[in-house]
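Large ribosomal subunit protein uL24
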Amino acid sequence: MHVKKGDKVVVVSGKDKGKSGKILACMPKENRVIIEGINMLTKHKKASNQMQQAGIIHQEGPINASNVMVYCEKCKQGVRTSVKVLDNGKKVRACVKCGEMFE
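Tokens:
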């Protein structure tokens, strides 16, 4: 998967195209991500006991990871990433356009 939890991403297709947010969760087996404030779903919740509140809950739904790009602060847009190997052997992701490293 080209994105990780905590990355700032931009949605490139779908109903939320152009919006950006932080990744809250990644599901690599399903190739899906949950992004803060994107793909909001309405869920009707029933109280399971006397103390719990019932009502309508708005929560983020998962979207396909292929519909998001990592946001580069230097380029000010969504970019593709490449993998660079540092001198100490550690692999890091980098912006293809400007070379800025993520993490």
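The chain has a mean pLDDT of 93.
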